Fold this sequence. Notes:
heterodimer, A: 3-stranded antiparallel β-sheet, B: alpha/beta, Ubiquitin-like (UB roll), Rossmann fold
Amino acid sequence: MLREVVRGLSTTLKSMFEKPVTIQYPEVKRPVRNRYRGRHHLRRYENGLERCIGCSLCAAACPAGAIFVEASENTDEERYSPGERYASTYEINMMRCIFCGYCEDACPTQAIVLGDNYELSFTDRTQAIYGKAMLLDPVPGGGAPTPQRTEPGKFTRAVPEMKNPEDEEASA
Amino acid sequence: MAKQMVTLTIDDQQVTVPAGTLVVDAAKKAGIDIPVFCHHPKLEPVGMCRMCLVEVGRPMMDRATGKPILDADGKPKIQFGRTLETSCTTLVSEGMVVRVSSPQVEEAHKDVIEFLLTSHPLDCPICDKGGECPLQNLTMEYGVGESRFIFDEKMHLAKNVPLGDLIFLDQERCIQCSRCIRFQRDVAGDPVIHFHERGRATEIITNSEPGFDSYWSGNTTDICPVGALTTADFRFGARAWELKATASICSQCAVGCNLTFNVRREAKAGGRIVIKRVMPRQNEEVNEIWICDKGRFTAHHYTESTDRLTQPLVRKNGELVPTTWEEALDLVARRFQTSLDSFVTLASGRLSNEDLFNLRQLTDKLSGQSLLDTYMAGGDLIAEFGVAAGTNFTDFGPGDAIMVVASDLEEEAPIWYLQAKQAAERGAILIVLNQRPTKIARYATHNLTCAFGQEAASLLAMANAIGSSEISRLPDWIKEFPADNALRLAAQAFADAQNGVIIYGQQGIGLQASRDVAQAAANLLFLTDHLGRPKNGLLAAWQRVNDQGAWDMGFRPAEDLKADLSQASAAYIVAVDPVGDQPVLAEALQHAGFVVVQELFLTETAKLADVVLPAQAYTERDGTYTSAARRVQRFYPAALPLGETQPDFAITAQIADRMNIKMEGSLAGRVFQQIAKNVVAYENLTYRKLAETKPQWPIVGRGDLYYGGTSYENSQGVGVALRPASQVRKLFRVTWERPQAEWPQMEDALVAVPLTRLYDRGTTVTPAKVLTPRLTPPHVGLNPEDAARLGVSDGGLVVVSLNGVTGEVYAHVSERTPAGIVFVPRSLGLPIDAPSPVGVRLAEKALARPSNLQRITR
């Protein structure tokens, strides 16, 4: 019987000198994995224009019905995104979202991406609805905030011309 | 007239269709979809897009005997063509064999799709058509997913070209199928858009000023098989799959076009459910798959106006102040109870049958008068001699006659214009009897002109020319109405036609004249035996959507509204603004004892009321409208009620309840049960019966959008056409009456004559901002002689004094206005119901001729 007690205590003693598995959150944060799917971002182009064109395909793809998009028309005097259309309302209900990443897949301009922020806590339901202002990335250096006044005829394409990666490999 | 039937084989399926059917339609009837872009069953075939290529084989014939050559099995030998044929231009023939799904045809489909996409921008994510686009659907179904064409050689063209104020063109998306051009040219008769340039540079342009000047432009966006044409109203409004569809009826004229309201919750509107767009709903017996731009762009905006009344108002110390329903209704009931005998209800045809029925019940209990606000008469005659159930304008052709009297049809009942025009083009006799040249007269086989005030007299002259028949004996006094040669010929053509319909309208006539015209028209129909059978009878292009329903519910036009109102101890004014229309009535209303106004807006009349009750718009509730052709049709709630508003029938029922009068007010359907019990013509009708549908051709909507474009399939009811008394019982009599309307007799004075404009400035039109640029400024039409005498130039300002109102408006000087006559459009600022004396003088400002004056072109 004594043998069992010693064996148990030795396990305890051994673990006292091991590196702890737990971390001191929130002071210490564990890095997330490469393909982690956290809170969404709406990205911008380098010039500061929003990538989102308000096509609502993310909302269509969303299995949880968490996304609500409303579009309006761009003009050269007041331009938010390239092309004719931009999202005047963009809302994600983070409580409904299941972080499946379908919205990312559906996006024709790679505007919406799931980031690494998992710190989503709310004290009431309305706080869980993230609006466009909360989701949009900050304006990159060298870019201007939206709406921008742009040169007529320059930003006529809503969907950027994307090369097939295979073609690029072939030419390289 | 049974058509010869032809049997052919499509993909091993035996199909029997009438001779003259196109292969593509025959296949569709057999449930086989041949993909198409340029073909549309309502348009003539052109075979431009090549999408419908099929293999066609015909039986080989022995030249010597004219008999089919048989093979070893005893079956006819089939000779297939060397190349594929377009099934949209090939007519069926006996023994034909069509292969729709052979490798050769599939290869052709792939190639055509690839070719159509050479310059297509593929910007489906931002395209308003995305999700309901035939090009998208067919590319998914038949496309290969890759293109052999060089990406950098795509044509880059303009993306948002406004073709007018209402329609945007995206030149890159256009596949040049010419559906829009053919619709405008062949169906609408407004050839205002065309192809320009050739080859890859082909583009669509408009050559009218203002751009795309047509009342039908919205339909081109429906039939466009790509997203090239989109409306300004719905531009980027929502994606097609996010919208919910609600069946409704257009409230802008009496044709009763079937609509679908597409609704969605909207953040911009504070999270309310709003109507995002208005689409036609197929009803081949009413509007086919078309609607006019007024219906498309104004049917809903007024119901969502921020100026709507949201709570009851009661006058306290001379001011209208908000109150509770309880207080308002208690007050109304108390005052109505003490107003027996001189109680007046004034309502309009904007109300549903349920509202009107309840109003009539209440009024009868109070021994009051049920008055209809209208400048047209004859609803009682239509209940007797109206077009018979089973009448369908799309069936009209050789041997049928349509007579249009005193009506600028396109302005008053646009769909009838479209249908009368097409009937005439199919060979029907179209007789137009108008006082001035109108657009419908272009298609007339007999274009007759009469002087203003002589409309009924001309109809009687036609009766005189035909002479007594076995059915009817003409009265002796008819000799006072001699017919000239043109009238005689037209009368004879109408009498000889197998079927005949007379449409009378609103042009240049007031209440009494319209009664005369209706009576004379009924007499003429009786004389020529054009009553009681389908495709025969009388039609009125009413002022409002449910005027016929109001007549059926027992409302009658007021003979002298001013007297009726000023003598009333209590007036209940519902959905009508008499003071706004005729400012002289303000005084009469002040004499009335107690005035209750039930309205959507705080109108001029409501401002004078003692109690104002806020009603729900028809988009927020259900009910029924009776169209001018007496088709009872249901509409359904599309949006949520605004504020504290209630449906009209419920408000009336609550007032009645407080007076211990039993009345149904809980549900529109329950009120309709009461109508079915109490109104003979509506016997046996139920909401369920009105919601029945039937198969219609062409097939539109559904999953496959190849045919009808984006108009909606009718899944919520085609309505029921009521049978006029002449159809129910075969014995009836018509009385001959002399015209009684008096033409204003004034020495050397000008006479103002009312005209109706589709784009007027009525309260249901102006809230639609998208249509604002198309509305004409207030104006009057003057004859060059009169204008010269007054010193007025075309486009100058004049001061007009009419029916107690003096206003400054533009003058449109034209030969089209007869001397001594001033054309005054209704609902455009100047009050006019019937021809009346008018004072016109030059405005002082006009001498300077400011440069910013807009010339009036219409």
